[in-house]
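Our consortium's second objective concerns turning raw sequence data into structural hypotheses that experimental partners can test. To show how far this objective has progressed, the report includes one record in full. It was chosen at random from the queue rather than selected for favorable results. The single chain below, 298 residues long, was entered without modification.
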Amino acid sequence: MTISNCSSGGFNGANNLKPEYFDAFAKYLTDVVDWYSKQGITFRSLEPFNEPLGHWGEKAVDAYISNQEVLTIECFDDEAKSYISQFNTHAYGGDQKSELLNISKLDDKKLWMSEVGLTVSRVPNDMSTSIILSEKILNDMRILKPNAWVYWQAQYDHDWGLIGTDFRNSTSQFNIRLAFYGYAQYTKFIRPEYRIIYSNDNDTLSAYHASSKTLVIVCTNKNNVSEVWSLDVSMFKVGKFTAFRTSSNNETLTELPKQWNITNGTLTHLSPAYSITTWVFSSTTIKNHSADGLETYL
């Protein structure tokens, strides 16, 4: 169906789907979704092309398109927008994240950060990838505020994978890299139906789940020295709390000893260099108002 006879891209950044196969390609996509539906698996959305305007050899084209992407969406008429259920974007770059967020809200569309991948360090106790990944999450949740944030390949046979394995060898062992645990500092605790809530610190992500009354705070120390952190949880009536950490000091989502107290609504702790710490507060209620009163992102 493609001009280049390859599904990964066209020549010189040009269109690659042959015009005579437009209808056949649409049928192919819907046939696949229909087959999965009959197996009991429902897809809420379908993306026909991955990075359709990206051609990594066409740098000038890339720069131009990235500046025009939001304008392109704004040019869609109401009929075109009616066929779109959500906007997907990738967090490799770009400087119009807030503009894309505003458009998604205006058009009442879901917004997903549907792919980002990093070259994952294979060096034991090297937190560099975990810190970079955490900074991307923090930045996107603060500016882009997507409904979902998705890592590209959790398991891969090259350096992109958080878990490394050789797909060509059936006896290959899984190599769980430190970045897997760095990512899990978020994904293990901030689950579907959690609401991202405001934090005035750029290295902190907070989330609250009203039904289970659980507050989660993820803190990233991206510096090469230990730091004293003070978490203001005074607007919450806090029950029990537990801390988990991934660091360069042989900690992999390690539950920490219970050695902290909350004094006058503030939890103070020492954050090691190059570490990610997640605090989980259970039986937590909001003082004087409901969860709807929180200043939330999602």
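The partners drew two points from this record. Residues 60-65 have pLDDT under 50 and may be disordered. The chain has three domains: 1-43, 55-193, 204-291. Both points have been shared with the crystallography group to help prioritize constructs.
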